[in-house]
What does this fold into?
Amino acid sequence: MAAMSDAPKPEILVVEDEAPIREGLCDVLVYHGYRPTGVATGDGGLAEALTGRYALVVLDVMLPGLDGFEICRRLRAARPFQPIVMLTAKGAEDDIVRGFREGADDYVPKPFSIRELMVRIEAVLRRAGRAPLDAQQGFAVGRWRVEPGERRAVDGGEAVELTPRELEVLALLARERGRTVSRDRLLQEVWGFGNVEHIHTRTVDMHIAKLRKKLGDGISTVRGEGYRLDA
Ligand code: CA
It folds into this structure.
């Protein structure tokens, strides 16, 4: 018999009001070596998520009480680096865009295949584990000095916080400084998406827009191609 690993299994919170989906998902998570906790209501889900015990939170959108967006927004405000995967209605583009805006790391459309959901969960956990990318190596963006280890950009006495995802976007652009990085490549390397769809491209644009709001100029748009940090 194989020796049991001493490493504690990551805890995952599943906030989903439909019992068959919630219970089925928890069973699969156990099978894959996680410790899941299922919660059926929005308010209960938020309270549980705020304990900070969870390596990842799976959030349904439609819930009794607080909905998934509101939970995501409040959770993100309290715990900026909490990995969150949202379950959205199939084809509901507005849900997906809103989910990302409220800070979800990824989304999986319903009805989902368990396999796809597991792939997404593991990709988000991997990214969370390795973020910030290129750890201690700082670099310049416009007037800012990005300090990945501190998860921030500084300019004199001024500092802005950056999320792991924003740091990954900036680190990739900085590695290719002076060259254009396509949206497809950003999606592939930062989000881990192999299949590029229109909706995913908008995700990149939304994150760039957020970065510009924080940092001002510094990231150039190359129309129809992608983004670039000027040398
Ligand atoms: Ca629901």
